[in-house]
Amino acid sequence: MIKLNDLKFSYKKNKLVINDVNLNIEKGYIHGLLGKNGTGKTTLLKLIAGLLFPDSGKIEVMGFNPMKRQVGFLSDVFFLPEEFEVYKMSIENYVKIHSKFYPNFSMEDFDYYLNEFEITDKKAKLPSLSFGTRKKVIIAFGLATRAKLMILDEPTNSLDIPSKTQFRKIILRAMNEETSIIISTHQVRDLHNLIDSIIILDNGNILLNASNQEITSKLFFGVSQSIDSETGILYNEESISGNVFVKENTQKQESNIDIELLFNSVFSNKEKIKELFPNSINKVIK
After folding, report:
1. Most exposed: 28, 44, 161, 185, by fewest CB within 10 Å?
2. Edge-to-edge strands of the sheet including 56-61?
3. Domain ranges of the chain
4. What is the pLDDT along the chain (286 residues), one digit of tens a residue?
């Protein structure tokens, strides 16, 4: 679905934000895009969506060049920015106007998602709603477009705990084998039990690009009362339940990914991660 080859982008001359990024992503999965502040996550998403143009390299999305902004491309891509304009109209008028750009838009889906978010008044004016409620409306609209590619930048910011649970539920409902969803967030715990693969950016480069299955085949996530009894520890920290840790999975043990632990261990052991995931940069995630 998405192919990036030798991608470079800079806002200022000689200061690359995206530097030689190669990335292939297949449809039918939810991908988590992670990275520290200023590493280029939002820039990368905008390049994929055709909102920014690369300095060099190639982008192909669903067979389209995003730079050309063709109707067939735009009608099958939905991009939710972290911040968005407040439209001076009601929810129902917003949908009436913008749904025309998406031929697969489903009003039935939209009403279902609104109901899940406990939003009942479609005549409510968007400016009168809290930022979190406005975001829920736009998320509901985006998923109802049934676009093949949905790009969500910090979608859970401003959502309360119940809304985050509802968000995870409706994201899973919106997924199908023809859809790909990319979620960029700093709220890594919001992605637990939701995503299928993890992409980590570091200074404009891909540091890790692997499926959950590959990650747990090479890394073990555990907890121990005595960390001294463990060998090959890549990262550990104290918690209420004991010392949680990540280590190389030399014994092929089963464990569940802790995304926050993974993130910290990756940035604490960059060279070891590159050694464990040598083909991470160019791999097709399926």
Report:
1. 161
2. 56-61, 2-12, 15-25, 284-285
3. 2-203, 209-280
4. 899 999 999 998 778 899 889 988 888 999 999 998 888 999 999 999 999 999 999 999 999 999 999 999 999 999 999 888 877 899 999 999 999 999 999 999 999 999 999 999 999 999 999 999 999 999 999 999 999 999 999 999 889 999 999 999 999 999 999 999 999 988 888 887 889 999 999 988 899 999 999 999 999 999 887 777 667 889 988 888 788 999 999 989 999 999 999 999 999 999 999 899 986 654 444 4
Buried b (16+ CB within 10 A) or exposed e, 21-59: bbbbbebebbbbbbbeeebbbbbbbbbbbbbbebeebeb
Query: What is the CB neighbour count within 10 angstroms for residue 250?
Result: 10
The amino acid occupying position 67 is M
Task: Please state which of the four CATH numbers 3.10.520.10, 3.60.140.10, 3.40.50.300, 3.40.50.980 is assigned to the domain occupying 2-203.
Answer: 3.40.50.300
Residue 123 DSSP class: T
The residue with tokens 């991908």 is 31
Q: Tell which residue, 63, 89, 198, 79, has the closest CA to residue 143.
A: 79
| pTM, full prediction | 0.90
- Give the relative orientation of helices 91-98 and 107-116 as an angle to the nearest 10 degrees: 150
